[in-house]
Write a structure and sequence with these properties.
Length: 120
C-alpha cells in the first residue's frame, strides 16, 4: 500500500512537471495600423514596438499592454514627432492607433491605443 502511494505520488509529480514544462509559446508578428498619414509619428512609435512578441496563447494582449505602457517613457519624442507631422497645432491631440498581432494560425488580436497629448 505504501509503495502504491509513493508510485502514485511520483506519477502525479512527473505529470505536473511535464504539464508545466510543455507550455507552448507562440510568436506573434506585430504591426501598427492607423498612422500612415503621420509618417514621423509612425516611425517614432514603430521604433519602440518590436516586430514580434513571444507569448502563450491567450496572453498576447498582456504582452502588448506591457509594450504600450513602455511608450509613456518616450512621450517627449512622440510629441516631437507629432510636431514634425504638424498636427499639434491645437492645444490637444488624441493619438490613436491599433497594434495587430498575428499568430501562427493567421488569427489576429488587435489592441487599440489612445493617448492625449497637450501642447504647452
Amino acid at each position: 500500500m505504501k509503495l502504491l502511494k509513493i508510485s502514485l505520488s511520483i506519477s502525479i509529480l512527473i505529470g505536473l512537471i511535464l504539464t508545466i514544462s510543455c507550455e507552448t509559446f507562440y510568436n506573434y508578428d506585430l504591426s501598427v495600423r492607423g498612422l500612415d498619414s503621420l509618417p514621423a509619428t509612425k516611425a517614432c512609435v514603430e521604433k519602440y514596438i518590436p516586430h514580434s512578441v513571444d507569448a502563450k496563447q491567450g496572453y498576447q494582449e498582456y504582452e502588448i499592454q506591457l509594450i504600450v505602457n513602455d511608450l509613456d517613457n518616450y512621450s517627449d519624442e512622440i510629441e516631437d514627432s507629432l510636431r514634425a507631422d504638424m498636427v499639434l497645432v491645437d492645444s490637444i491631440f488624441v493619438l490613436q492607433f491599433t497594434i495587430a498581432a498575428w499568430d501562427p494560425y493567421d488569427e489576429i488580436t488587435t489592441f487599440d491605443f489612445e493617448k492625449y497629448y497637450f501642447q504647452d
